[in-house]
Amino acid sequence: xxxxxxxxxxxxxxxxxxxxxxxxxxxxxxxxxxxxxxxxxxxxxxxxxxxxxxxxxxxxxxxxxxxxxx
Length: 70
Prior knowledge:
The chain has a domain at 26-70: Arc Repressor Mutant, subunit A (Orthogonal Bundle), CATH 1.10.10. It has four helices and two strands. The protein has helices at residues 7-10, 13-23, 45-56, 62-69, and strands at residues 31-33, 40-42. The protein has a two-stranded antiparallel sheet. Strand 1 (31-33) and strand 2 form a beta hairpin. 7% of the residues are buried. The mean pLDDT is 90.
């Protein structure tokens, strides 16, 4: 994903945060891109909810996150 001054207008904030979350290799043991890079895998839902979600979003509600993804 290239960055330019129009990125915030081109993509919803949720997608930008999700991309940043997935690109952060410090979370690799919890969440990562799939091997083909077309999806992502949450390896530990509890850690994802408690540690990762509040870092990027204003909540730790896994159900809310999933609703936004789908």
